[in-house]
């Protein structure tokens, strides 16, 4: 039986999402899934040619959301460690499912998807990701990236070979080093972040983070402090105004103080 989390005052979650094809792509290969009651949000950015990317991202977002929502319904006070382990296993299962589908059906050959997911228990946000879809934390009006991209660009930055904004960075910025459906041995990156009432978690595809700076994202979130739906729409609009070179998807999770449990 999963271990139980401590019993802090409950956090109530408000979730808002928006997804758009952008101004260049012919169809939307991003997918989102949210369950505010269970405290689950998942965002995926598919790849692999016409329709295949949509299939991969759709399967990943829907299945991982369903897996974790069922778990939270059965164990609403599951510990963060057990929730993290369950998220890892769900991501691995979906990775295998997408990989095998791509091998068995030529229509889906080469398909894959990035992923970023968050699940809440007690006062902890459990994060899982693979690829360059990101999670940010907005606390006291300051935005912090809380996932690290799995990309060739990030590896080169870490090695000091390029800096963000260098001309050479543009050539490799979209080459991800981890994605679901590409390798059966995928190891998603898991993490935990303590959360407080008033915090907001932003999940986004690179269609947002490639178009808008972190400062611009922070400003928009702060301008719409009490209007998450409007903030999500505005972020997508601004990414399109900046060029909209990719599909754009965002999920905003706002944490409110709930009643004692």
Instruction: Tell me the helix content.
Output: 25-40%
Strand order of the largest sheet: 1-10-9-6-7
Number of domains: 1
CATH topology title? Phosphatase 2c, domain 1
Q: Whole-number radius of gyration?
A: 18 Å
Q: Mind describing the biggest β-sheet?
A: 5 strands, antiparallel
The SS-based structural class is: alpha+beta
Number of strands: 10
Distance between the ends: 21 Å
Q: In CATH terms, what is the architecture?
A: 4-Layer Sandwich
Task: Please provide the ordered H/E string of secondary-structure elements.
Answer: EEEHHEEEEHEEHHHE
Query: What is the CATH superfamily classification?
Result: PPM-type phosphatase domain
Mean pLDDT across every amino acid position: 92
Protein topology:
Layout: E1 11-20, E2 30-35, E3 40-47, H1 52-74, H2 80-104, E4 112-121, E5 124-130, E6 134-139, E7 142-145, H3 152-158, E8 189-194, E9 200-204, H4 206-209, H5 214-223, H6 228-241, E10 248-257
Antiparallel strand pairs: 1-10, 2-3, 3-4, 4-5, 5-8, 6-7, 6-9, 9-10
Helix pairs in contact: 1-2, 5-6
Quick structural overview:
The chain is of the alpha+beta class. It has helices at residues 52-74, 80-104, 152-158, 206-209, 214-223, 228-241, and strands at 11-20, 30-35, 40-47, 112-121, 124-130, 134-139, 142-145, 189-194, 200-204, 248-257.
